[in-house]
Amino acid sequence: MRTVQQLFDLKGKTALVTGGSRGLGLQIAEALGEQGARVMLSARKADELEQAVRQLRSGGIEAGWIAADGAREEHIARLADETLAAFGHVDILVNNAGATWGAPAEDYPLDAWDKVMNLNVRGLFLLTQRIGKVSMIPRRYGRVINVASIAGLSGNAPGTIETIAYNTSKGAVVNFTRTLAGEWGKHGITVNALAPGFFPSKMTQGSLDRIGVENLCAGVPLNRLGDDEDLKGAAMLFASDAGKHITGQILAVDGGVSAV
């Protein structure tokens, strides 16, 4: 019988985290690395990745980086192949890379819709498919963690934000998670999703500026936004053997917004 500490131990495990150069992705990467996993970060900008890897290594975490655009099929293939060449296999895949765009639905630009969908849904599918087929299914082990959003669980309040493509894409991630969990359970692979509420980040800064932190917090039962620690515990549950009997689940980390 393992102890709780042993169940959460990731020594000897490898993880690939997309959108890992900052924000929620970097927070999750820190959690995985702190528990012993080797971590590969991916994002589009090499300079931001270099800085993130320096931060992780300063904390004793073994980490590397690969610059890749998660919306481009050839980049996704290269990312998967180079990660597998470096690590040998991938135990934990964190699909965090994402984009958003704000505009009224009736005037929403098609190119903006495609940009959001190509990264948030198509790219997520292609990378998961490749890592699953080449590494996880043959080894009969894997942990897939998709970063969805509470925006994928409901619509937006009138007069707040206008993000129809983002909400739609995150709704797709929610059902992608449930569907893949059903298909890949027989291979020993768990597939779960985190659904964050508002966390201060580059992606949410526009909404925070327009709506205001105080107004956003007023609708949160815990009366606060997420911080740079709030995804770590949930990510560890899904990534480790502590969560080996949990699959197909969507965990909102939102201060209670989705509960009221």
Automatic annotation (TrEMBL):
InterPro entries registered for this protein in UniProt: NAD(P)-bd_dom_sf, Sc_DH/Rdtase_CS, SDR_fam, Sec_Metab_Biosynth_SDR
Gene3D superfamilies, alphabetized: NAD(P)-binding Rossmann-like Domain
EC number(s) per entry: 1.1.1.-, 1.1.1.69
SUPFAM superfamilies given in the database record: NAD(P)-binding Rossmann-fold domains (SSF51735)
Pfam entry (one): adh_short_C2
Domain of life of the organism encoding this protein: Bacteria
Alphabetized UniProt keyword annotations: NADP, Oxidoreductase
Any GO MF annotation of the entry: gluconate 5-dehydrogenase activity
EC main group: oxidoreductase
Family as reported in the entry's similarity comment: Belongs to the short-chain dehydrogenases/reductases (SDR) family.
Record's protein name: Gluconate 5-dehydrogenase
